[in-house]
Amino acid sequence: MKNFELIVKALAKNFNETFSFLMELADMFSGRGDFEKAFLIREELLRQGVSEEQRVKILEHFASDFHKAGMYENALNVLKEAFVICSEKDRLLDYMSHLCIELNDWENLLNYQRMKKNKDSNFIVYGLCQWSKSLLDNNEYKKAKLLLKEAELIDSDSLHIKFHYADFFIYDRDKDGLLRLGDEISNNFPVFFGIFLKKYFSGFGCDDAVSEMVENHFTKNRDDFYTLHILVKRHIEDGNYQSAYNFLTKYYKPSDRNPYLLKSYIQCVKQLGLEINCDYLTWYFMEREDVERWFRCSSCGYESEHFSFLCIRCNKFDVMTQIKFHEQQ
After folding, report:
1. Where are the domains of the chain?
2. 20 to 30 Å CA-CA from 106: which of 77, 172, 240, 271?
3. What CATH number has the domain spanning 1-87?
4. In the sheet that 303-304 helps form, which strands lie side by side, from edge to edge?
5. Average pLDDT of 269-275?
């Protein structure tokens, strides 16, 4: 390590010619998880007479290293230093806001978003709802409600607000209100119905009322495999394999090619002592490459057939990683 440090110091002295090389070298070590060497290189560059533009770049990459290492407070402090001299302040404020999400620091997230020249109302509503939820979880009902009302003044049609109302319905034990909200989401935002279903299960479990609502949802959205995934998973967790099997055989067809649902189907058949319908297995054995194209969010576990830079469930960036069938949970 001592020799490495001496080499870096020698290269950094001639930073006008070696700056790009040293930054790429630090990025390589950071990508490998060797943060000590990445930090050493960036610290040595900061000691040199670099320009403001170069200094901002070093600090941003430094923050990224801390972020990868899970040192969110350190990353935030580095970005605050960069913010003073950076000309693209909105971009840094967005990055600082995302770090606040990791720290559950909703108040500062809102402060950073409100400092932006081009404010993102959706992000502000998200921050207000998350802050409100954290207060509700701590039984600070009135303060939580005030923040929700503030969010409604910005965008009353926001999905963040609708899902946060579900938290209040659960807190108030208002099942009828929650069911009405579920119908609204099913009719107007069907792709998010599975997320609503998870909230319902957390508050009231898998009862007859929600089963009827789910049946109505599937009559209009038969290809909503994420909702089917959530429903089947809950039934299996409750040991109700017959109900899980019934939903699978009714809404999951052999041609749908969904690895998780296939695994659940096999699990139910095994538990119930039934014969496997081989049509469900044909696509897996005959077209195995198709299974390789599945992605899972490393933060919340959401799975999708399609890659995206943003997880649609938890709204985090750069968290979708490719998985194989045998890695499915």
Report:
1. 1-87, 190-286, 292-329
2. 172
3. 1.25.40
4. 303-304, 294-297, 320-323
5. 91
